[in-house]
Amino acid sequence: MYAASVAPIDEALAARMSASWRPGCPVPLEDLRYVTVTHVDFDGAVRTGELVVHADVADGVVRVFAELFEQRYPIRSMRLVDDFGADDTASMNADNTSAFNCRAITGGTAWSEHAYGRAIDLNPVENPYVLGSHVGPRAGRAFASRPDAPGVVHAD
Description:
alpha+beta
């Protein structure tokens, strides 16, 4: 059975997020929400995952993950990027689905949509970031061609 919750960032969570959020980030903590959702893992077991997203997308995120749950779409891991020291590479290497991280765009200085809580990396190994010959994470190279495999997102 699918379950989800959306909550403001409380003091304990703000302390936990000290690696991913700091003064100077483009969005205040008050504009972020802590979202928990049930999901199916690659073994078919039901798990509870967590994300931090912008308040204006939180309800939509809950609806999307409800649909993914209904379709039994597998998600390997869904933990806050803070569990990886806000190291995006470490989170992606662990095939961790994550959202908020106050960071710049890959290879640039402008804020990433992740810094606003408006982007989600879903199964980043199966759905790697591809720009020219760059594929991140490296383990995602086998999925850069978008094969028909569990956890891979397709346009249709």
